[in-house]
Design goal:
The chain is mainly alpha-helical. It is about 75% helix and about 0% strand.
């Protein structure tokens, strides 16, 4: 029934107007400049006999042209405004004011335009100018009130509407807007007086009752707020909305018994009303009546009219609680299943249950529901991400590649799709495809943001380039990874080991390998790498010490490559028989490096350029 003027209208397609401040501040200068031009033209030198008549003809012609020019500018400005080109409209109205400086409508139009572009200061200035030129125009007054409103001068806006309500007593909206602005000005008591007078005039109206109820609550007059809702209930006893509002008032003021009575009354009219059921379930839980709590809750969740977003918001805390209380997993899954049953065509329902399964480590079950979710709604990247994450955790490279390929095509600006595609191709030994995907990942926003993420990509690129024999690109990728993440032990180890295989930059390799051991001193793989680098540097005794330290681990003693390395070290320390023993042991454990068979047959060390 009552409408307020929109003080927050958005400007379609535009976020602001550059140079508007300069434009407006120059308006007065433009007007003054134009006057000077006219005066100069009128005082131009002419013969005395003809000067008067010539001036009159010139002035008439000039006046006609000016009128035409002004009309053209005004209508052009109106057209630009209608097309949403507010910048052009402001410029055209400003040019118009150079010609017609006392037209209040132009100031009014500029005020409305500046409200649209959210420049409250200029909006108020032009509104005041319009009203000063014509105070009888109600639209100018309304715009002045709006301008006061966007400047948060709510008292002044209320005063404008007070004048309008006095002048136009038949228009109830003016009185209503006066009350609304008084409420915004934190003058709740005065606003209530206005709404009371309006109610006496128009009778009981829902919107008025709600406004009064909110003001009473703000004034901590709970009984009066409840009385307003009671009036609505008496007027329309079948509308459960009013009962729910009344119940919420009592509930927020710890009047539990009265609130519960109201919610039960709601259930008598609507036995599946979710808000009443949720409220009553909360009371039962506080009283320790778990059976009643669960009965109310499940009834609410079974109701398809209960908004699915509210259900999801209710269930999500169970994700955090299930790690502390295992019973919460069971409850959460039961509620999630009820959501699915009530909303079988909603992707959110399956994604919710999948999240529960995923959090509990039940990855196979999570995959089933995530796949159902993307089949129902393929537009949600977060669900696709969960699928990729689970497939990567399960080392399911084939499915990871399938899903990441779809994601990289549907969401080309999402970093993780390209990244997981690179990972999947790497694990499947599709190294060129992995390199392509990872380089695309680096060009997406996610790849350019977090330095740890970029470091991980460069690290994997280093591995992929190495696998394809592109050593320069591999080394460059590892260097970039370490620039971003200098203490990445795995990169330090891999980079140093690959350098040692090629016999290049061994001093750098030794330094990086030593640092990796400082970061992870118990890693037998890192010990093996360090020993091998020392071996390539002909520091055989040190290499032996590190290799023997590694072989103290049972896992290392079962590693054929480490056993072969130890044999190589022993041979170069002139312990030929013992070296032969470890080469043979390495072969028994499955070593198949280039030259191992010749080492055993010829009983001598043969340099291998690659570890298989």
């Amino acid at each position: 029934m009552f409408k307020t003027h929109n003080n927050n209208r958005t400007l379609p397609g535009r976020n602001g107007l550059p140079a508007l401040n300069r434009l407006v501040s120059r308006l007065s200068l433009f007007v003054a400049g134009f006057c000077c031009v006219v005066v100069t033209a009128c005082n131009s030198s002419k013969p005395a006999a003809s000067r008067t008549s010539s001036r009159q003809v010139y002035s008439m012609k000039d006046s006609t042209l000016l009128e035409q020019r002004a009309d053209s500018l005004f209508y052009s400005a109106e057209r630009s405004k209608m097309l949403g080109d507010y910048r052009t409209a402001i410029t055209q109205f400003s040019d118009y004011l150079r010609l017609k400086r006392n037209n209040p409508t132009a100031y009014y139009e500029l005020s409305r335009l500046f409200i649209e572009v959210r420049n409250p200061g200029y909006a108020l200035g032009f509104a005041r100018k319009a009203v000063s030129l014509d105070s009888s125009n109600k639209w100018f007054q309304i715009t002045l009130a709006d301008a006061f409103g966007v400047n948060a001068q709510f008292d002044s806006a209320a005063a404008v509407y007070n004048r309008l309500a006095t002048r136009y007593p038949e228009n109830d909206e003016y009185l209503y807007n006066k009350g609304m602005f008084l409420a915004k000005a934190d003058k709740s008591a005065e606003a209530l007086e206005v709404f009371d007078s309006l109610e006496r005039k128009v009778g009981l109206v829902e919107e008025l009752a709600f406004q009064k109820q909110r003001l009473y609550l703000k004034l901590n007059r709970m009984e009066d707020a409840a009385a307003e809702v009671h009036k609505l209930i008496n007027q329309n006893p079948d509308d459960v909305r009013y009962y729910l509002i009344l119940g919420d008032i009592y509930n927020s003021n710890d009047r539990v018994e009265e609130a519960a009575a109201i919610y039960n009354e709601v259930l008598e009219r609507d036995s599946a009303n979710p808000r009443a059921l949720i409220a009553l379930s909360g009371y039962a839980k506080k009283e320790g009546n778990y059976t009643q709590y669960w009965a109310y809750l499940t009834r609410a969740f079974a109701n398809p009219d209960y908004n699915i977003d509210e259900k999801v918001a209710y269930v999500y805390p169970y994700l955090q609680m299930q790690g502390v209380d295992s019973s919460k997993l069971r409850e959460g899954l039961q509620l999630a299943q009820l959501v699915i049953e009530a909303h079988p065509e909603e992707a959110k329902a399956y994604a919710l249950q999948a999240d529960m399964f995923s959090q509990a480590g039940m990855l196979d079950s999570a995959l089933v529901d995530y796949n159902k979710a993307v089949n129902l709604d393929s537009t949600r990247f977060t669900v696709w991400y969960q699928l990729m994450w689970i497939y990567s955790r399960k080392d399911d490279s084939n499915n990871l590649l399938k899903v990441s390929t779809v994601v990289s095509e549907r969401f080309p600006k999402e970093f993780m799709g390209h990244y997981f595609k690179g990972v999947a191709n790497f694990l499947l030994q599709n190294y060129p495809a992995s390199i392509d995907a990872l380089n695309v990942a680096l060009q997406t926003p996610g790849g350019n943001g977090d330095k740890n993420t970029r470091a991980d990509v460069y690290s994997l690129l280093g591995d992929a380039y190495h696998a394809t024999g592109q050593h320069q690109q591999s080394d460059s990728s590892y260097d970039r990874a370490l620039t971003l993440k200098p203490d990445d032990a795995l990169v330090l180890n891999n980079f140093s080991y690959y350098l040692s295989l090629r016999g290049e930059q061994l001093t750098k390799a030794e330094s990086m390998s030593k640092r990796s051991l400082e970061l992870e001193p118990e890693s037998t793989n890192f010990m093996d790498t360090y020993a091998w680098i020392l071996f390539r540097m002909a520091r055989y005794e040190q290499a032996r010490q590190w290799m023997e330290k590694a072989l103290q681990s049972e896992e290392a003693r079962q590693n054929p490559n480490m056993l072969e390395h130890y044999g190589d070290i022993l041979f170069n320390l002139h312990e030929v028989d013992k070296a032969l023993e470890y080469w043979q042991l390495a072969k028994q454990k499955g070593a198949n490096s280039v030259g191992l068979a010749r080492k055993i047959a010829e009983k001598r060390y043969i340099l291998a350029t690659e570890r298989e």
